[in-house]
Design brief:
about 600 residues, alpha+beta, Beta-Lactamase, Heat Shock Protein 90, 13 helices, 20 strands, about 50% helix, about 20% strand, elongated
């Protein structure tokens, strides 16, 4: 059970990693498509087309948020597959707790409405449009579009089905909305560059930088999925971040379990990598720790005014050093921080937005690596448990084999003692009783001998057992094969020891009785044994002879003979089967019993 639970949990973690990677790949694809667009309408069309592939959204909209005026105005709307002219739609005011757009903007997180119609009376900031169908939307998913620390708008999806959007949809659309926001931001930069000829050079440079950034972000995203070695991935991300942001150095820190110190796991700063990798930074008493405590990105362009500057002993100090620190956040929990420093040029909000994107990739890499490490540990533990189980099973097999061997030997000793006692008895009837007891013991001992010699310690081939038992009884009664012929029609049938032993006792009685009573006065004849498995899975056993049979009117069920009563008792009570017989000519026994009464021991 523990092994099955371990395997189930391992599959769940593998499925978690797979969904995470698939979501990242979707965001990468959308990012790549949007990075190729510089026209706002094309960006909106692309965003709508890609989102439609992922979720049900007959109605789709992109809203712009004017922070100064505190209003929301529509940028792009599609209703029932038709583009809506938004030029005549008025802006709506931002009012707390009055609508999904306002909630998404103010709370800076996705807003899911399972039944829009139930909230329409309270919604003031909802833009109503006419669509081709009179149906009213039921589900609504609104995702904020964020660039840096600023909410620049929302992406809104509507469906005619109630309760269709999930938290997983919200997380995926949040990643896409960030890429759309970045793409729209790039498009606006390009539009401004086209409109302002005097600033064309600066705008083109910003555009090239943005494109270079997009490629670097895609590269970073691919590297996150290419390796599960967290140090390798974080080192690559820190190098890319340093290059793209023209930083002097970049370091990635992970929060220790005590949440009081930050441990560096990746450093990209020429000449100082080895020194900085061995220095832990306190959460209280450092600017990096301050970002972790406050949970938001901060820029420090004048370190002389900051009392919490943490200086690593033995490293150079620069008067014009600037610092940008962004937290590593995963599932709303701070797990570390990314620290970038620059000499000379100050950091700005665009730098901060780029750094946050790299930090998001670093957090994802950390989570992937941690999940992978947990999975490896679980697999190692499972292998140890499996090895222990195999060892235990081998020990039990050896013990059981030795038990069968000793049981067989003990039965042989008992049989030999009975044979010795038989020689001391003069009365033939008493000697016959000794012989019958010996035959029963040998019938049971034969099962243990076969199990001891077999690879399967739980089951016996009943066909082989019948063959050897019949030969043993022929030899025991000193019957010549030319006087009584033994005909076997038996199928190979594996049964448990719990079935084999009582079946052997039944066969012992029936064959012994046939050998003793069916052919008096040295008559010749034949004993036929049939063994098969029925379509219902029952064991079918028939023992017949063409001897003298039984006198008319004799009821064997009423017989007080121990052997005959043993046949009826074992078949009907122990094996829960059926037994019948036919007389004239000879005697034919029909026995049928199930093979499902007992379970395997090993």
């Amino acid at each position: 059970v523990h092994v099955m639970r371990d395997i189930t949990e391992r599959k769940q973690r593998e499925e978690q990693i797979r969904r995470l990677l698939e979501r990242q790949q979707v965001i990468n694809r959308v990012s790549l498509l949007l990075g190729q667009k510089l026209d706002i309408a094309a960006i909106c069309d692309t965003a709508h087309r890609e989102v439609q592939k992922l979720v049900d959204c007959p109605n789709f909209g992109l809203m712009r948020y004017d922070e100064k005026r505190q209003v929301i105005y529509p940028l792009y709307i599609v209703g029932d597959g038709e583009r809506v002219d938004v030029s005549g739609l008025p802006p709506v005011p931002l009012e707390p707790q009055t609508g999904p757009n306002s909630r998404a903007i103010l709370e800076r997180r996705p807003d899911i409405v399972d039944d829009l119609q139930a909230e329409l009376k309270q919604i003031k900031t909802h833009i109503r449009i006419k669509t081709a169908t009179p149906r009213q939307p039921r589900s609504l998913l609104t995702v904020p579009m964020i660039v840096g620390e600023r909410v620049v708008g929302t992406m809104q999806l509507q469906s005619y089905q109630a309760g269709i959007y999930t938290q997983e949809d919200a997380e995926l659309l949040s990643g896409i909305a960030s890429q759309v926001a970045m793409a729209l931001h790039n498009a606006e930069l390009y539009a401004e560059a086209q409109e302002e000829l005097k600033k064309r050079t600066a705008a083109e440079e910003a555009l090239r930088k943005s494109n270079r950034l997009q490629k670097s972000l895609i590269t970073a995203a691919h590297q996150v999925t290419e390796s599960l070695d967290v140090r390798v991935v974080l080192q690559r991300i820190s190098q890319l971040a340093r290059e793209i942001l023209d930083a002097h150095g970049c370091a990635v820190f992970l929060l220790e379990d005590d949440r009081r110190t930050l441990r560096p796991v990746a450093v990209s700063e020429p000449g100082l990598e080895e020194e900085l990798l061995f220095v832990k930074v306190p959460v209280n008493g450092s600017l990096t720790g301050r970002v972790v405590r406050e949970g938001k990105s901060l820029i420090f362009n004048d370190l002389s005014r900051e009392p919490e500057v943490f200086h690593v002993p033995g490293t150079p100090q620069y008067e014009d050093k600037r610092l940008l620190v962004t937290p590593l956040r995963f599932k709303n929990q701070i797990v570390g921080a990314m620290n970038l420093n620059r000499l000379g040029a100050e950091f700005d909000e665009e730098d901060l937005a780029v750094a946050e994107t790299f930090a998001a990739y670093a957090a994802t890499a950390w989570e992937n690596a941690r999940t992978y490490d947990d999975l490896v540990k679980e697999m190692e533990q499972r292998l140890q448990v499996e090895e222990a189980l195999r060892n235990s099973l081998r020990e039990k097999e050896l013990l059981l084999q030795e038990l069968y061997h000793r049981t067989k030997n003990n039965m042989q000793v008992i049989s030999a003692m009975l044979a010795l006692e038989e020689t001391r008895v003069a009365d033939e009837a008493s000697r016959e009783i000794f012989r019958e007891i010996q035959n029963r013991i040998q019938a049971m001992g034969l099962v243990h001998q076969m199990l001891y010699q077999s690879q399967d310690l739980s089951r016996v081939d009943l066909a082989q057992y019948v063959r050897e038992l019949a030969d043993l009884l022929m030899n025991s009664y000193n019957i010549a094969s030319d006087r009584i012929r033994l005909t076997l029609d038996i199928e190979s049938t594996a049964v448990l020891i719990d079935i084999a032993i009582p079946c052997g006792l039944i066969l012992n009685e029936l064959i012994s009785n046939a050998l003793k009573y069916a052919f008096p006065d040295n008559r010749t004849g034949e004993i036929r044994i049939h063994l098969s498995r029925s379509e219902q899975g029952e064991i079918v056993l028939e023992v017949a002879d063409n001897g003298v049979g039984i006198p008319p009117g004799v009821d064997l069920r009423a017989s007080d003979t121990l052997g005959v009563q043993t046949v009826f008792s074992i078949t009907e009570h122990q094996l829960q089967g059926q037994v019948s017989y036919e007389a004239n000519p000879g005697l034919r026994w029909h026995i049928r019993f199930p093979d499902t009464l007992y379970s395997e021991r090993i």
